[in-house]
Structure formats: C-alpha cells, structure tokens
Design a protein that fits this description.
Elements lengths: L1 H5 L10 H12 L6 H17 L16 H18 L4 H13 L5 H26 L2
C-alpha cells in the first residue's frame, strides 16, 4: 500500500514538476517539445530515474536486484503511459521497445526475473481488458 501512495512522488519535486507538466501538456495536445524544453525534460527524467526504485536505470552497475514489487510498479508505469498517451497497449510497447532498451540494466538471472514478472503483469492486464470488453 505504501508503494502505491508514494509511487512517482518525485514528479512533484522542484526538479521534476514543471518539466513533467509541460511534457504531459504537449503529449496530450499532439505537439512536440522544442529543443530547450526537451533538454529540461531529459534532465528531469534522469533525476526521476535515479531516485525512483521502480526504474531499472537506477540499478545500472549495481549488484542488487529490483524486488518483485518494483518490477510490478514498472509494468504498471508502462500500462499507464500506454493508457494516458494513447501509445498503444502495454504488450506492444513492452515487446517492441522496452525489452530491447532495458536488458542492459540486468545480468542474465535478473533479466529472467524481470521478464517473468512483466509477463505475469501482461497476463493480468489482458485479463482485465478481456473482462471489460465482455461488460
């Protein structure tokens, strides 16, 4: 429960809030950030990734492993982005973009655990969509 309450709370920090708000506005309105805005957003993203434990970028060059809860939060982030910004569904983004760009953050065993939990989340998301389609 605590993870749900504090999930992405750093997006309200001075370092991140304005950049994420501007990014979201542009995304919802189908416009692009200009170079300067993109640079500010990239810095905010790096700050976010280094602080929030459900982003694998935080674990780069680290011996530890993300917990199953952190992996589930990561999957929920991907689903939320797909929903919020109309970027397709979790499965498409996860399979075609995310896996390829994030494998570098994990050793073989860790990657196996990540894929196992992400696949479980995918099955849950699909079941939820299937149930809502039947209503």
């Amino acid at each position: 429960m605590w993870n749900a309450l504090i999930h992405d709370s750093t997006k309200f920090s001075d370092e991140q809030y304005s950049a994420y708000a501007e990014f979201s506005w542009h995304k919802k309105n189908g416009t692009e950030l200009i170079n300067e805005q993109q640079e500010v957003f990239d810095i905010a993203c790096l700050d976010h990734y280094q602080i929030e434990n459900h982003h694998p970028e935080r674990f780069e060059n680290r011996q530890g492993m993300m917990t199953s809860m952190e992996i589930i939060e990561m999957a929920c982030d991907l689903q939320a982005m797909a929903d919020e910004f109309g970027e397709g569904d979790f499965e498409k983004y996860y399979e075609t973009v995310w896996k390829r760009s994030h494998i570098k953050y994990f050793n073989d065993y860790q990657w196996g655990q990540v894929v196992k939990y992400m696949d479980r989340c995918l099955r849950c998301f699909k079941a939820k969509v299937s149930k809502s389609d039947n209503k």
